[in-house]
From TrEMBL:
InterPro entries: AB_hydrolase_fold (IPR029058), CarbesteraseB (IPR002018), Carboxylesterase_B_AS (IPR019826), Type-B_Carboxylest/Lipase (IPR050309)
Enzyme Commission numbers on file: 3.1.1.-
Identification of the protein by name: Carboxylic ester hydrolase
Protein's organism: Electrophorus electricus (Electric eel)
Organism superkingdom: Eukaryota
Source taxonomy: Eukaryota, Metazoa, Chordata, Craniata, Vertebrata
PANTHER family according to UniProt: CARBOXYLESTERASE
Length: 596
């Protein structure tokens, strides 16, 4: 084993005792007979001792060889035991590391329990060369989806270019999206890699956290026996548990525990700014990037518990003990996928139905969050004041548009759908929308332009404009710098990723920024073009700079004075989309923004 590859901990439990015999000879005498075999000279003892020690040394060497990792592998010591990882593509990887005991049985719907507190550390070398199970979920969302994963899923993974760098490396912690219902921290093209760690000279961490009903079910009967007297938000507690693990252990991987950046996309972005507002995450991270996260986050624990009674009725249970005996399929099928307010988020990619809202998954529980985030900022309550980036893409909703034939729409189809969907909100809203989003707008492609404009309208209303308001509120509350970006890049061909997209998007779609950062274009685009790679390099360069420095370079000024526009190169704009956003804000559309 290459001892230079990592720092070997002191093993104070081994002690050695040496006794010296002062007598020249040791004789065993019987009354009238002295056996020659029992009269041993010091010289004989010396040679016998040497022989025994040689055998012990040989046995120790053989044991060492048996435990020494083969070429291409490495072992490190964390606070729960030894890990065996792998070296490839210019970096070390350690995958599937448990950070809490399995949340099964009586631990279902409870805060995560540290392995050390439960006496569950491993005693041999833990094989961290492969991913473990993803968390229980259905894909696609809904009662008829395919059940994947297990409850025993609380694992994290680490990628690092060096175990002993000259200076500790910045750490970036990835929180995956999926509407708090699906996906994992190990999706190909949507999670860190050895190549990225090597190129960025940064330590990356990704994690699996409890999802859907297992991670976010709020019910009054689940408060019984809860150490926090709350329910829900268990997935956020898992994320906080990982941040604590990082503070204790990331130095072993060459990372700087004082330079931790949280970044997440979609519900991962929602998670990021949840942790910014949580007193439980105080001091556990130092920068934050919210990519296309939710704007609506104000559901109280009591209202969520009432709304979730439909889940309880569908299970047939009347107490927590019964719920904890249900299997994975029974729980997932009982989620209110179709009942109002639905957990499936149906209609979120379209112009909303008036007075129709999606059900909250994340809630203000009084434990992870003491108050709604905006109230906390406005009333100067507790929050983690760290440098903050808020990002969105121009056509967020194009990954799952309302109709599969939208790519064949004519401009007549576009006007008919906008009119039908917006008429319930009044003629003024409709006429202004048709004026601001009209067919004379410069389309970035030669085809599918009605689709481009329709998904731009929906994305402004549901995501982009509300996130402008989120960034504005953050800039008013935080002493740290706040930055805003919008991805305007149109990829060279339709984005098609079977694990992430139900529809081949042609435009600047939801997830495009994270795909670029994680080198996911190879899978999603086939053969990325020179322009695709230029956009990828722009986004990656600025993100890594932010992680290292805690601020952007001078060509990316702070919000709200400027918004960065990310394309094949960076540009900045003042009052970007201001008139369009005023339409949606002034006419009360922000409550229809993405949730969860």
């Amino acid at each position: 084993m290459n001892e230079d590859a990592f720092e070997v901990p002191e093993r104070n439990e081994y002690r050695y005792l040496v006794q010296e015999e002062e007598e020249d000879e040791v004789q065993y005498v019987r009354r009238h007979y002295v056996s020659p075999f029992l009269v041993l000279s010091r010289r004989c003892i010396f040679f016998i001792t040497c022989g025994v020690l040689a055998l012990i040394a040989l046995a120790g060497y053989l044991a060492y060889v048996a435990q020494t990792p083969p070429p291409g592998f490495v072992e490190v010591f964390v606070d729960c035991g030894w890990l065996r990882g792998r070296w490839e593509s210019g970096a070390y990887s350690f995958k599937g590391i448990p950070y809490a005991i399995p949340p099964v049985g009586q631990h279902r719907w409870q805060p995560p329990v540290d392995l050390r507190d439960a006496g569950e550390c491993w005693h041999s070398v833990y094989d961290a060369t492969r991913f473990r199970s993803i968390c229980a979920q259905v894909q696609p969302l809904g009662k008829d989806g395919r059940v994947l994963g297990q409850e025993d899923c609380l694992h994290l993974s680490v990628w690092t270019p060096s175990l002993q760098p000259a200076e500790p490396l910045p750490v970036m912690v990835w929180i995956h999206g999926g509407y708090l219902h699906m996906l994992s921290g190990q999706e190909k093209g949507y999670s860190p890699t050895e190549e990225l760690a090597s190129q960025a000279q940064t330590v990356f961490v990704s994690l699996n956290y409890r999802l859907n009903a297992f991670g976010f079910m709020a019910l009054e009967i689940l408060r019984e026996g809860s150490p926090t007297n709350t329910s829900g938000n268990y997935g956020f507690m898992d994320q906080i548990q990982v941040l604590k693990w990082i503070q204790r252990n990331i130095h072993v991987f060459g990372g700087d525990p004082g330079k931790v950046t949280l970044f997440g996309q979609s519900s991962g972005g929602t998670s990021v700014w949840t942790l910014m507002m949580s007193p439980l995450a105080k001091g556990l991270f130092h920068r934050a990037i919210d990519m296309s996260g939710s704007y609506v986050y104000n559901a109280s624990l009591e209202s969520a518990e009432r709304a979730n009674l439909v889940f309880l009725r569908k299970t047939g249970c009347k107490d927590a003990a019964c719920l904890r005996k249900l299997n994975i399929e029974q729980i997932l099928q009982a989620i209110p996928w179709d009942e109002y307010p639905s957990w499936a988020g149906s209609g979120m990619m379209d112009i909303p139905v008036k007075e129709h809202f999606c059900g909250p998954v994340a809630v203000v529980d009084g434990h992870v969050l003491s108050a709604p985030p905006f109230d906390t900022w406005e009333k100067h309550g507790f929050y983690n004041d760290v440098p903050f980036i808020v990002g969105t893409t121009e056509q967020e909703s194009d990954y799952s548009p309302p109709l599969q034939n939208i790519s064949t729409w004519t401009w007549g189809d576009y006007q008919w759908f906008v009119t039908e969907k917006l008429r319930p909100f009044g003629d003024v809203v409709l006429s202004q929308a048709l004026r601001l989003y009209n067919s004379t707008a410069p389309c970035p492609t030669n085809d599918r332009c009605p689709e481009w404009l329709y998904t731009t309208l929906v994305s402004d209303m549901r995501v982009g404009c509300p996130n402008n308001d989120l960034a504005r509120r953050a800039a008013e509350a935080l002493k740290s710098p706040v930055y805003r970006y919008v991805v305007a890049y149109t990829p060279s061909r339709a984005v098609n990723s079977s694990s992430l997209f139900p529809y081949p998007s042609r435009f600047s779609v939801h997830v495009l920024d994270s795909l670029a950062f994680f080198r996911g274009f190879e899978e999603a685009l086939g053969a990325p073009s020179k322009e695709d790679r230029a956009f990828q390099e722009v986004l990656t360069t600025y993100f890594i700079h932010f992680a290292k420095e805690g601020k952007m370079p001078v060509d990316w000024p702070e919000f709200p004075s400027y918004t960065a526009v990310l394309d094949q190169k960076l540009s900045v704009a003042q009052n970007l989309t201001a008139e369009r956003c005023a339409l949606w804000e002034q006419n009360g559309f922000y409550p229809y923004a993405w949730i969860n």
